[in-house]
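Practice problem: predict the structure.
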Amino acid sequence: MSLLSVIIPVHNTVAYLENTLDSVLKQSLSDIEIILVENMSTDGSDVLCDELAGLDSRIKVIHNDIAGLSRARNAGIKASTSDYVAFIDSDDTIEHDMYEKMYEQICHYDADIAVCNYDMVFDDGTSKKLYKETGCSEFLNTKEFTYNLLKETICSSACVGLYRKDLFVKDMIMFPEDRFYEDRALTYLLAANARRGGVWIQKTMYHYYQRPRSISHSLDFEKLSHHCQADMERCKFVMSSGMFPDRYERKPLLDYIVWSFFWAFDQIVPLADTACKKKSVMDIRRQMLRMFSFFPVLSSPQKKNLWRLRLWWPYLTGQNGC
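Answer:
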């Protein structure tokens, strides 16, 4: 049995897959299994996966007959044979020692999760770093780790983490299927169930390439709706889990999540160009107002946003009181 299972969902990324896989095969931690979960590709990625599997015995291939990133990741988790799992998208790359450093830190602190930083790499070769970069590792207990992840001080992408597999299997936490922003809806739950805490490696080791057709470059009504849904689930968790009982401890978390919600919500309102979409927007609005019916401890800007959602809806949307 390998130390680590690396799960790579593959869908129409034939132009990038070999480069991605090369960065995994050259890891300094070589005792790994690599699971390519190909799902309904039409560009030859399915054939390429099978060809690549013939080059290295560590590579396994699963062909899913239903497309979807979450479905692919869940299938990979179920097929994995290691005690730890990691994820990488099939058009990104990682540093050669990423998994070795993460595994070492998990063992050193006896933690359940290790996460690192990522950068955004653009077509012109430039990159942008988003998180504190000290090169050091910091151990956080379960509450601290969850807090920082919800506050996005630590990246919530599943691709920057190494996870004890039991967090998925034993705690029955899997990626929500048929949804975008599935990481945003899941990784904080993994953190909350990481009873041994987590380690934040404050170093960029994952490279997220900004492709023209990536989620961040092709936001539409459905994706933004799922972003709102994930933020509402996060709000509910903060208010009801009991992990953050102090109301002033909850304030910065709720402030950030409510701000994030309105970032997405204000973009979907003008995209609601059908009766079905308008109903969906109204449902999101109703859920958010019900959750914050008394507007608990929030900063003034976020309280104003909620009042705007409640009182000025017809005027802001032009939907005549819909």
